[in-house]
Structures are given as C-alpha cells and as structure tokens.
Amino acid sequence: MAGNGLFPFTDEHESIRQAARNFAQKEIAPVAAEFDETGEFPSKTIKKMGELGFMGIEVPEEYGGAGMDTLAYVLALEEICKVDAAHGTIMSVNNSLFCNGIMKFGTEAQKQKYVVPVASGKAIGAYSLTEPMSGSDAGTMRSRAVRQGNEYIINGRKSWVTSAPVAEYIVLFTMTDPEKKHRGITAFLINASQPGFVRGKKEPKLGIRASATSEILFEDYHCPLEDRLGEEGEGFKIAMAVLDAGRIGIASQALGIAEAAYEASLAYAKEREAFGAKIGEFQGISFKIADMKTRIEAARLLVYNAALAKERAKKTGERFTSEAAMAKLFASETAMFAAHTAVQIHGGIGYSKELPVERYFRDAKITEIYEGTSEIQRMVISRMELGLR
Ligand code: COS
Questions:
Q1: Which of 110, 117, 187, 308 lies at a CB distance of 3.0 to 4.6 Å from 229, suitable for a disulfide?
Q2: Contact, 299 vs 334, CB < 8 A?
Q3: Ligand 1 pocket residue status of 237, Cβ below 6 Å
Q4: Ligand 1, closest atom to CA 236?
Q5: Helices in 39-69 by DSSP H: which ranges?
Q6: Nearest of 347, 339, 336 to residue 279 by alpha carbon
Q7: Ligand 1 centroid vs 240 CA: distance in angstroms?
Q8: What's the pLDDT score for residue 107?
Q9: CA 288 vs CA 32, 285, 363: distances in Å
Q10: Among protein residues, the one whose CA lies closest to atom 46 of ligand 1
Q11: What pLDDT does 163 receive?
Q12: Which atom of ligand 1 is nearest to the CA of 129?
C-alpha cells in the first residue's frame, strides 16, 4: 500500500494505483523508449488511458470523469510517471490544468461542451499562459482580446503550450485591458478547429519528448461571449488557482520519476560487481542509496499532504498554494537529484540509451521548470511565510 498509515488511503485508492501500475507496465513500458526517440505523440496509449478514466480522475461521473479524489489522482499519476513521464505530462494537463479549471470556474454549458469530451478521453485539452516574452512574470502578456458586441477578437502568440499540436480545446489567458496589468487578463475557452487558430512551431525538447509542445497563434480568432471563462479581469487569479492544482500533479510526476531512478539504482547496486564485491557494499554507492530513499520518502509526504490540502479546499474554499508549491519544489529537486545520482551509480551504461536511466535524467529536468520554476516556488512559499502577499 502507498503511504505509511498517515494518510487515509481506501480500497478505491489501492485499486486505481494498481490499475495505473498495470497499465503503465503492460502498455506504456514497451513503447516508451520508441516514442521518446521519435518524439511522436502516443495517441493509442493516451486513448486507452482515457477509456480507463485516467483523463478526468477528479471530474464527477456525470461530466465524463472517474469521480475520485485528489489522492487517487496523485497515486495514478505517480505510477504512470514511474514508467513514462511524457504520458504523465499529457495526463496531468488534461486533469489539472484543463478539466479542473473549468469545473471550478466554468458555467454548466462550458462543463458540458468542454469537460465532458476531455474527461472521457475523447479529446485532448491544453492550457496556455506563457508567451515568448512572458514566462515567470505571467502578468506581462502581450496577446490581446478585444470585445466586439457578443464576441471577442483574439490576436497574439503563445508559447510552450503542452499538447497544443494535438489539442482540440485550450484554456487561454490573454489581455483584455492592458492598462490594468494582471487585473486586465481574461480567460477564454478556445476551439482549435475554428478559423483564426493556428498551430505554430513544435518545440524540439530535451525530455518528455513524446508529449507534444508548440507555439499557438491567434489571427483574428472570434471567441463568443459564452466561451469566456469567469469574468473579464479574473484571468490571472484563475490561472494562478489552476496552477496551484497543476503543481500537485507535477510534484507527483517528479515523485514517480525519482522512484523509477531509485529502483533501477537499487537493483544495479545489488547486482553489479567491482573490486570483488557488489557495488552496493561500498559506501560511495550505499550512501547515495540512503540519500535517494530518504529524499523520496520526504517528497512523498509532501505530495500526499498537498493532495489532502486540495481535497479539504473543496469544502472550505481555502487556498492550498503553499502546500502545492512546497510539494512541487521538493519533489522536482528530488527527481533531479535521484536521476542524476542514478546515472552516476550506473556509470557508462547509465549514459547509454540501452537503459531508461538517461531518459529519467532528461525527463526530471522539466519538473524544475514548468508550472513555475523552483525559483518561483521559493518566491510563492516565502511571500506567504513573510506575509508579503
Ligand atoms: N490563487 C489565487 N490568486 C492568486 C494566487 C493563487 N495561487 N497567486 C496570486 N494570486 C492573486 C493575488 O492575490 C493578487 O491579487 P490582487 O490582484 O487582488 O492583488 C494577484 O493574483 C497578483 O498576485 P501577485 O502580486 O503575487 O503577482 P506577481 O505578478 O507578483 O506574480 C507569481 C506572482 C510570480 C507567483 C506568478 O506570476 C507565477 O506563479 N508565475 C509563474 C507562472 C508559471 O507558473 N508559469 C508556468 C506556466 S504553465 S507551463
């Protein structure tokens, strides 16, 4: 069983964890290296994950989801990412950045039109905040939406949009009133098959290569009023609140990568011999094993704690910003540490594409960058501690 008695795991949690583990080992493990190499989008396995309910774990069943809680979501995502972080990225965007935001801020009609197809795995969703000149400083975007009667005309360029090359629907954040700065940002729901939406250059990435990422362009895209998410000027708060949930997903992704790197290292330390002994018998290796294991268990506690905080927030409406930021910060740095250490323990073979260890190393890095860099997480945590926000 995951956890250690501190967390309220149920049989339902155990069954989704097992289902995710079985699926990942049987269906994703055999193809993960190939999709990483080609950078192609793994449509078949993603479709099957949708059929199993993995694309809308927390979405109520009447909106096409699995109707489970945040702990179920992090347990399933951890198992998928333990085998392949790229599949996990696609899953996390659909769940936490797309469905979660619309369930929280959308109208009934928006939930029916956008959440139902994505949560049931029939369509892919995306989330678009970043622009070429606006990353960490998300309030400074240049794209624009101008209201004309009962619609908005959207123009501009967004970048680093996960799943954009294949997404049918996108939650977009753009400026409606530049003078108001972050208070002039508004969220919209975009239909990628409408005129004025253009998919731009695909990013050639270091890791999570099977998760497609690209720029998107808006050229006089007409967005009807009913596809505005929330009120005018509420976009920045919606973006931040949705990222709070997203960061818990990235933290569980990082935990999964760290565990994979650790388990490979442990097995290798028990099997590989040098100087007449198993390498695990040398302190140079055994202390690395101890440090990996300790950091992973600490990361696990933070991830499950953040999931519980989000679950409580469904009733109290309280923010879980700090819990999510701490989990993401620590788990992503743990993933990078564990993957880096795993390559070192494996030596030459760890640097080879014959084993997945080098892929864990490349995939781990993004968890310290996307959905807010480690520096941004430290900013978020320290501002809350110091009462600066
Ligand atoms: N939930 C709800 N509201 C939030 C919030 C959150 N987690 N975080 C901030 N806000 C609100 C604030 O309360 C403030 O409200 P008012 O306008 O009423 O004062 C407003 O948003 C602006 O907040 P703040 O002054 O803290 O904004 P900053 O411009 O200083 O930036 C950071 C805040 C740096 C935290 C934010 O820009 C950020 O998270 N950047 C990283 C973006 C990111 O993760 N990008 C990756 C995209 S996905 S790959």
A1: 187
A2: yes
A3: yes
A4: 21
A5: 43-51
A6: 347
A7: 5
A8: 98
A9: 27, 5, 20
A10: 371
A11: 98
A12: 47
Cα(208)–Cα(74) distance, rounded to whole angstroms? 18
Among the options 131, 358, 371, 385, which is catalytic? 371
Residues 232 and 307: beta-carbon distance below 8 Å: no
Q: Which of 307, 264, 355, 245 is nearest to 17 (CA)?
A: 307
Whole-structure pTM value: 0.97
pLDDT of residue 5: 72
Q: In this predicted structure, what is the pLDDT of residue 4?
A: 56
Nearest protein Cα to ligand 1, atom 41: 136
Secondary structure in 3-state letters for 342-353: HHHHHHHHHHCC
Reply yes or no on whether 271 is catalytic.
no
Ligand 1 within 6 A of CB of 159:
no
The answer to whether the CB of 378 is under 6 A from ligand 1 is no
Q: Is 323 in the pocket of ligand 1 (CB under 6 A)?
A: no
Query: In angstroms, how far is the first alpha carbon of the chain from the final one?
Result: 39
pLDDT score, position 2: 46
Number of Cβ within 10 Å of residue 40's Cβ equals 13
The finding on whether 371 has its CB within 6 A of some atom of ligand 1 is: yes
Q: Which residues of the chain have pLDDT under 70?
A: 1-4
* pLDDT of 8: 87
Q: Is 313 in the pocket of ligand 1 (CB under 6 A)?
A: no
Residue 112 tokens read as 């029916």
State the CB neighbour count (10 A cutoff) for residue 150: 8
Q: What is the CA radius of gyration of the chain?
A: 21
Distance CA 26, CA 147 (A): 50
Q: Which two tokens stand for residue 115?
A: 């959440």
Tokens describing residue 97: 């950045």
Residue 219 CA, ligand 1 centroid: distance in Å = 27
Q: Please tell me the distance from the alpha carbon of residue 282 to that of residue 345, in angstroms, as a whole number.
A: 11
